[in-house]
Amino acid sequence: MQMKICNLLNHTPCDMFEEVKMKKRKIGSKLWILGLLAGLLLLAVPVQAEKTFKLTCQNVNAMDHPGYIVIDQLIEDVKTMTDGKLVINQIPPGGMVKSPQTLAATGQGAIDMTITYGCYHGGDLPVAAASFALPGDPRDVWDMYNFYYKDGALDFLREQYKTRNVHYLAPAVWPGYAMMSKKKVEDLEDIKKLKVRASGTMAKMLNNVGVGTTFIPFAEIYQAMSRGTIDATVSGSHAENYLQNLQEVAEYMVEPDFSSAQTLEILVNMDQWNAMPEEMQVAFETAAQKASLHFTRMFMNMTKTATQDMMNEGVELITLSDQTMQDIRDASYKTWEKIASEDKATAQFIDMVKKDIAEEGYE
Predict the structure, then answer these.
(1) Which residue stretches of 133-277 are H helix?
(2) pLDDT, averaged across the chain
(3) Contact predicate 247/241, CB 8 Å
């Protein structure tokens, strides 16, 4: 298994195996007699095979979404890296539970793993909504990965998710958080007249400026817009909106983005995670990091052409004024303060965000 992990991904977790080998060499010579006795014992006792873990993973994304596609590859990677000892079966949205229930279901063991968004379970774990996306956050995807892995945000979130019996395996970040609308909007007053699909902190920000919002699972947005249940959505990048074919039901796409990045979560039941041997955990985490970067690359490539592709199909691009965007940013930062005052973990997380924004040189 060790060589397969190193050769497949050439990833730094391999260093961990070298340290283990050195320690084993130091104590090995002292324990050769016990080793001999153990070997003789094995001649009389049947060998117990290493346990095979079989996990069911529910994904909240449709099967043609990058967030589903990269997990298919993760599944193949961990199967190879663990010699078939970690087997994952991925099922689509609603396969076992409704999408907003995936965190609770994972913690309870109804499903073993989920690919989801923090905005879906912000009501149960408030910091999750803040970690999904903060309106007005200027940081790009690479800033966000540094924030998670270099500045300690992932370690902090793992402690919060542990309270729900869930291990936060890895974040996957993609650019943009944009609006698409069936009706033309040019300023905040126009947006206030719409029925908008939004979630998490984005919904709270819009509510704070007088916009009526409703939550609809991402996979159901197309149907809701086509039926007139909603007038607009603030739910993904324009690449993601194009992937959903929203250009067929919405005439206007709006820029700039309301936030620069969003985060997808790869979560595992804590009991399953703790039961895995260390080498399997390393393989699993390494494969998840590879999947995360693949996810980001896919969206960044799609983003290059999505706006023009939708315009070619008749969608009109609207650019909001500087004053309107300033109004949205002001409302966003007030929302940060409000949600921080309501939850201790959220307050700690937002303090980390503010520090990171300052260190990255944003105004």
Answers:
(1) 141-149, 153-162, 188-192, 200-208, 221-227, 238-243, 270-275
(2) 87
(3) yes
DSSP string, 45-88: SPPPPPPPEEEEEEESS-TTSHHHHHHHHHHHHHHHHTTT-EEE
Task: Give a yes or no: residue 213 inside a domain.
Answer: yes
Place of tokens 């796409």: 253
pLDDT tens, residue by residue, 236-284: 889 999 989 999 999 999 999 999 999 999 999 999 999 999 999 999 9
Burial class (CB in 10 A: 0-12, 13-18, 19+), 346: buried
Give the residue numbers spanning the domain of 329. Answer: 177-260+309-344
Placement of tokens 């229930």 in the chain: 101
Q: How many domains is the chain built from?
A: 1
**CB contact at 8 A, 173 and 145:** yes
**Confidence band (pLDDT; 50, 70, 90) for 25?**
very low
Alpha carbons 86 and 176: distance in angstroms, whole number: 34
How far is Cα 312 from Cα 314, in angstroms, rounded to an integer?
Answer: 5
CATH code for the domain in which residue 236 is found? 3.40.190.170
pTM of the predicted protein model: 0.82
pLDDT of residue 120: 92
Residue 106 within any structural domain of the chain: no
Residue 255 lies in a domain: yes
Q: Are 157 and 131 in contact (CB under 8 A)?
A: yes
Residue 323 lies in a domain: yes
Is residue 143 within 8 A of residue 360, CB to CB? The reply is yes
Which long-range contacts link 71-80 to residues 24+ away (Cβ below 8 Å)? 71/115, 71/266, 71/291, 73/290, 73/291, 73/294, 74/287, 74/288, 74/290, 74/291, 77/8, 77/9, 77/287, 77/290, 77/291, 78/283, 78/284, 78/287, 80/4, 80/8
